[in-house]
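Translate structure to sequence.
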């Protein structure tokens, strides 16, 4: 759990809420939200700079072994000082800063393939049509057997990951065994700057229910959502599921733009308050394109920052029914300030508040965010008068649990057993059809496969996990035969939280009716 929490924190650090700052400032203060005088500020900064300069001089001239004092300051002193403030203020070296800029623009360097990587095996799950892999005619089921002369079969998982990461930076030579062939073919290709969509899953769950998973919020996100809805002719949809689970946030302007696709003109989305910046509110400034489309938003404990802003705005304006689990609780803003040598500083400079004035930031003991929640006892309500929870993180309107797995099933799900079985199943039976379903005979084969691999199967665990096993087996088979997009559809179709969201569309429609009634009442009251 500690490793998972740390990994998620790093994702948030890498995809935080951006505000453009035109000046460079490094401010050392005791509390980021206190308001000392400018004279006190100047004195604190001078004393801090004098100490840093003195330490830098001593390190450069007196240390027993030669070292790079600048690196010591950047990698040690600055990172250490920032870590005492909050988990989101960080120093970014040149490589991290460049990666962040690429991500903000919605691009990444690579070959355009989704790969399944495990010890001794790399399998293609999907290739983008205009990418180096796509142009080479590669696709689902193809296996990479050599990378720049290194045999994949002889490498463990860590070695494979390192080799693949290195290969993304320059021309690579791959030996690939394509599906249905017995002799590998060599390919040489150069990495390219490829679009990195933020809406990474989009399909119709049913003929009239759309599903969009937003992985993060960047410049391209509003247009990606708009394009998908226009492609589906959204006026004919019975509802839309907007999946913000595991979304760590992103940029401010597109966050407001996403909300503006569904909210009414003039409605508030978010407001910012910070010591060094004036309070600013963001409202919808254009007519919404889909103000009457029933909307359900999915959140979980890894929904954070900009994603929480969107969900909270929809909830408070009674625009969407929120389903899932309480969100992460990140309600602060980082400003990215460029430094020399391509490095940058991400510093927490403000807090954001929902249209009703709620802060979703959860208290973080031992940091400057330990006492962020108000103790005024103020109660919050939606536009239509629904009570709203306050206390760090966003509470869903309807709780829905993810897969409830026992330890054996959870551990099995983290192994490569399902992928390995899918590959062996295809080798024995050939490619499956779109109508394929996992019946008892397939489950029996999977059970025999596990037993031959030496996996002990507790009888009760097997019985209770059958629904999950069926979804995972079918997902991996569809990944290999039809590509990752079709596998995503299978996975979402069997997801218990997604199923709860589909059923909650009736609640979303009731919200629209409630909102219309409230507007009518307000109109009468104004006469």
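Result:
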């Amino acid at each position: 759990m500690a490793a998972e929490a740390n990994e998620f924190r790093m994702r948030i650090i890498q995809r935080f809420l951006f505000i453009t700052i035109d000046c460079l400032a490094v401010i050392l203060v005791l509390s980021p939200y206190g308001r000392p005088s400018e004279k006190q500020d100047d004195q604190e900064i001078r004393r801090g700079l004098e100490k840093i300069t003195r330490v830098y001089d001593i390190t450069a001239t007196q240390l027993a072994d030669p070292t790079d004092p600048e690196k010591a300051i950047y990698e040690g002193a600055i990172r250490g000082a920032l870590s005492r403030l909050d988990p989101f203020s960080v120093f970014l070296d040149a490589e991290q800063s460049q990666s962040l800029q690429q991500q903000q623009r919605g691009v990444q360097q690579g070959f355009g393939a989704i790969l399944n990587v495990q010890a001794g095996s790399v399998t293609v799950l999907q290739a983008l049509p205009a990418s180096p892999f796509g142009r080479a005619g590669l696709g689902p089921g193809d296996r990479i057997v050599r990378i720049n002369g290194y045999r994949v079969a002889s490498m463990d998982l860590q070695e494979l990951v390192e080799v693949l990461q290195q290969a993304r930076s320059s021309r690579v030579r791959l030996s690939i065994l394509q599906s249905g062939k017995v002799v590998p073919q060599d390919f040489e290709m150069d990495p390219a700057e490829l679009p990195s969509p933020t809406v990474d899953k989009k399909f119709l769950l049913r003929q009239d229910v759309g599903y969009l998973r937003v992985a993060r919020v960047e410049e391209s996100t509003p247009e990606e959502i708009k394009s998908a809805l226009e492609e589906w002719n959204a006026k004919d949809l019975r509802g839309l599921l907007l999946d913000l689970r595991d979304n760590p946030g992103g940029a401010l302007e597109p966050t407001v733009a996403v909300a503006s696709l569904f909210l009414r003109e003039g409605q508030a989305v978010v407001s910012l308050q910070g010591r060094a910046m004036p309070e600013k509110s963001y409202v919808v400034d254009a007519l919404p394109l889909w103000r009457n489309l029933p909307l359900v938003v999915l959140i979980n404990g890894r929904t954070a920052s900009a994603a929480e802003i969107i969900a909270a705005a929809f909830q408070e304006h009674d625009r969407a029914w929120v389903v899932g689990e309480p969100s992460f609780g990140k309600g602060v803003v980082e400003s990215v300030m460029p430094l020399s040598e391509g490095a940058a500083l991400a510093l927490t400079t403000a807090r954001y508040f929902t249209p009703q004035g709620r802060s979703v930031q959860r208290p973080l003991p031992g940091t400057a965010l330990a006492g962020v929640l108000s103790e005024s006892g103020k109660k919050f309500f939606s536009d239509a008068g629904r009570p709203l929870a306050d206390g760090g993180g966003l509470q869903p309107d309807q709780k829905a649990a993810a897969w409830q797995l026992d330890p054996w099933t959870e551990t099995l799900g983290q192994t490569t057993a399902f992928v390995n079985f899918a590959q062996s199943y295809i080798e024995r039976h050939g490619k499956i059809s779109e109508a394929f379903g996992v019946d008892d005979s397939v489950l029996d084969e999977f059970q025999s496969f596990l037993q031959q691999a030496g996996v002990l199967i507790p009888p009760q665990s097997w019985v209770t996990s059958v629904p999950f096993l069926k979804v995972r087996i079918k997902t991996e088979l569809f990944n290999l035969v039809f590509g990752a997009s079709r596998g995503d559809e299978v996975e979402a179709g069997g997801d218990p939280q997604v199923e709860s969201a589909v059923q909650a569309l009736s609640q979303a429609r009731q919200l629209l009716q409630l909102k219309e009634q409230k507007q009518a009442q307000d109109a009468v009251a104004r006469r």
